[in-house]
Each structure stands twice: as structure tokens, then as C-alpha cells.
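wait is this the right file?? whatever heres the structure
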């Protein structure tokens, strides 16, 4: 029987951050990672994606990301950094190993993978959200005979040339994909409320600083003019600024329902579209933990990152419910450090 002190499920930035702090302890750990390549879900994002903060704000603990030739690093620069980070610290990681099921057996975790069974005293789940894209329910969506894709599988605008596209979602993904697709297609943008754009002079750094204040418990509702700063605000990266100069960033409120060729707006008007591009976010990918019976409404109740019902389990990197900004490159290190401190105390 292979028994580890800690098993980390997922070798993206969150899993590597946990390993970074663990390697300074005497605890035995192993990362189990489904993919063959380093880089987590960054490997699957769209081709033109750039980070929304400069490299010094896009770095994991211990080793800063090398300076990019661009102000904002490209996704391949970031994947190369993650790959080099993994090699630099020689983390114990077993690739092409997908965790299928986690159970409790005699006080230990029994972790069933596609390769073999592992046992551990404690468990960190760091499987991200990319494998659980969220699409809101709208009446009659099955009737629509156009294409529907989520930003999770969007690669580039080639398939949309000359078409009429409805883009749904008011976050950074929605704004950036709208900016790209609107260069080759006619677009309409649907958001729940008026999109919140950061001022041009601010980028992801300001969001992270705000998140840090929250993490330290020092935050008051901060605002800049009449504008409150939130992690979901749209950062005015070059492509989004360029779309603004073409007067593309105009959003309307949601439609009522679908019909065969498109959507029906609240006033009853029908409008045809060739495709709907859902940029409506993600939920935690927790399927492998279902057998523990502690998932409620897609989440696990935690105190910081530690599961309340299963105190030998920690969840890292999923969103604000696992620590402010824990689903960002800059933010994940803080929650990882705290998590490893707790694990070390328990063991
Ligand atoms: P992931 O990168 O998804 O890593 C999870 C890993 O777990 C994957 O490698 C996966 O293969 C593995 N895995 C999953 N299930 C299993 C299983 N059952 N068994 C074994 N392995 C498994 N943040 C920023 O700070 N700056 C940005 O500019 C930025 N831009 C973003 C742009 C987009 C489009 C998106 C979607 C997110 C962006 N983020 C950004 C947020 C965040 O940094 C990324 O989503 C990041 O990938 C999250 O890392 P993670 O390690 O939590 O998850």
C-alpha cells in the first residue's frame, strides 16, 4: 500500500503552490495530475489570451516569472513559466493520472485513479474550475438550431467569420472574446447588468492589492470615483480598448427565451443568430469528491480552505470561497501557505 502524508489532486498553479510550501516540510507528498503537460488549464484557453497583469504580478511563490517582452505576458509565456517552476523545484508529480474517486477507509483517504490506488493521511483538492463550465438555463434553449459554445472551448474567431454572434457574459472573458469576434462577425453582447470596466490606468494589480487587503481583513468598500473595485471588473487590456474605439462595448440585458433561429427579447422581438458564445464562467470541478458526500450546491463548506465536515481535506484555488483571489496567480500563494501551515499542524 502506498501511503503519503499528503496527496494533492491537480498540478496547475494551485497544486504547485501547495507543493512549494510542502517541500520545505518533512511531509511526504505527491501531486496527481491528469494531463501529460505542465500548465494546468492554461493549455486549453483561447489562442490570443494574454494575462491581465504584468509578470511581477503573475508570479507564484518563491520564483518570479521572467519579464515578458510584452507588458502583459502571453498564455504560452505563462505555461513555460509553470513548466520551468515545476522543474526548478523538482516537485513529486505523477502525470497522466486522473483521480476518479476519493473515499475514506480506516481513517485514510483511498484515492482511485486510472492507473492505481493511492492512500493518504490528508488530501488537497486543487482541480480548478475549467472542467466545469457554467451555462445558465434559458427557456427553449434546446430549440435553437445554431451553434452554442462556452468560452472554455473557444480557441479563435475563424469559425465565426461573416456570421451573427450573440456573446453572453459581462466578465473579462466576455469582453475579450467580444473584442476578438467583433472584428470578423456582427456581434451583440448580453450582460446581466451594465458591465463594470476598470479605468484604463488600472489593471489586475489593483484587483490583487484590493484582494490582499481583504485577505488581511483591512478592506473597506473601496471605490474610485463612483466605481467600486471588484475581482470581476473588466480590465482594459489592449484588445478591449481597441474594441471600445470601434464602439463595440455596448451591452444589453438578457433575452426571454430561445426560438429555432435565435432569441426572443423581453419586448417580444425575435432576433436570429448563427451562434451563441457563453462567457458565463465556471463552477468548481469536484466530481472526484462526490463519494465523500459533503458537496452541497456545488461547493464544500470550508473554514478558509479546510473542509468543515472532512477536516483532513483542503480545497485550494477554486474562488473566493477558498480564500480571496485564490483563483488567481497572485492570490493562490497566500492561501497555499496558510493551508500547508494547517496541514503541518495536523500531522
Ligand atoms: P487549473 O489550471 O485548472 O489546474 C487544475 C489541474 O487539475 C489541471 O491541470 C487539471 O488537469 C487537473 N485535474 C483536474 N481534475 C483532475 C482529476 N480528477 N485528477 C487529476 N488531475 C485533475 N488569473 C490571473 O491571475 N491572471 C489572469 O490574467 C487570468 N486570466 C484568466 C483567463 C481565463 C480565460 C480564465 C478562465 C482564468 C484566468 N485566470 C487568471 C484565473 C486563474 O489564474 C486560472 O483559471 C488558473 O488556471 C487556475 O489555476 P488552478 O491551478 O486553480 O486550476
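ok assuming it is, sequence goes like this
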Amino acid at each position: 500500500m502506498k501511503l503519503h502524508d499528503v496527496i494533492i489532486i491537480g498540478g496547475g498553479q494551485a497544486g504547485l503552490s501547495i507543493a512549494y510550501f510542502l517541500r520545505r516540510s518533512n511531509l511526504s507528498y505527491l501531486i496527481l495530475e491528469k494531463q501529460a503537460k505542465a500548465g494546468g488549464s492554461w493549455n486549453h484557453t483561447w489562442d490570443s489570451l494574454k494575462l491581465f497583469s504584468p509578470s511581477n504580478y503573475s508570479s507564484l511563490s518563491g520564483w518570479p516569472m521572467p519579464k515578458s517582452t510584452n507588458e502583459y505576458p502571453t498564455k504560452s509565456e505563462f505555461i513555460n513559466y509553470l513548466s520551468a517552476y515545476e522543474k526548478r523545484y523538482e516537485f513529486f508529480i505523477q502525470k497522466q493520472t486522473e483521480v476518479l474517486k476519493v473515499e475514506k477507509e480506516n481513517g485514510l483517504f483511498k484515492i482511485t485513479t486510472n492507473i492505481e490506488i493511492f492512500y493518504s493521511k490528508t488530501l488537497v483538492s486543487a482541480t480548478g474550475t475549467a472542467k466545469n463550465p457554467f451555462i445558465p438555463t434559458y427557456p427553449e434553449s434546446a430549440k435553437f438550431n445554431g451553434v452554442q459554445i462556452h468560452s472554455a472551448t473557444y480557441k479563435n474567431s475563424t469559425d465565426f467569420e461573416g456570421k451573427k454572434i450573440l456573446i453572453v457574459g459581462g466578465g473579462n472573458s466576455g469582453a475579450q472574446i467580444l473584442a476578438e469576434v467583433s472584428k470578423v462577425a456582427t456581434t451583440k453582447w448580453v450582460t446581466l447588468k451594465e458591465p463594470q470596466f476598470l479605468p484604463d490606468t488600472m489593471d489586475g494589480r489593483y484587483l490583487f492589492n484590493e484582494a490582499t487587503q481583504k485577505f488581511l481583513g483591512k478592506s473597506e468598500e473601496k471605490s474610485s470615483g463612483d466605481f467600486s473595485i471588484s475581482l470581476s471588473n473588466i480590465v482594459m487590456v489592449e484588445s478591449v480598448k481597441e474594441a471600445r474605439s470601434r464602439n463595440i462595448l455596448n451591452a444589453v440585458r438578457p433575452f426571454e427565451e430561445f426560438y429555432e433561429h435565435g432569441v426572443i427579447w423581453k419586448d417580444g422581438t425575435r432576433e436570429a443568430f448563427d451562434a451563441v458564445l457563453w462567457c458565463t464562467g465556471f463552477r468548481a470541478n469536484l466530481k472526484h469528491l462526490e463519494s465523500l458526500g459533503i458537496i452541497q450546491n456545488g461547493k464544500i463548506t470550508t473554514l478558509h480552505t479546510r473542509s468543515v465536515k472532512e477536516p483532513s481535506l483542503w480545497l485550494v484555488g477554486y474562488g473566493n470561497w477558498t480564500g480571496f483571489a485564490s483563483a488567481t496567480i497572485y492570490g493562490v500563494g497566500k492561501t497555499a501557505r496558510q493551508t500547508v501551515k494547517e496541514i503541518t499542524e495536523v500531522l
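The helical segments are 13-22, 75-88, 172-181, 204-215, 238-245, 329-346. so i think its the right one actually
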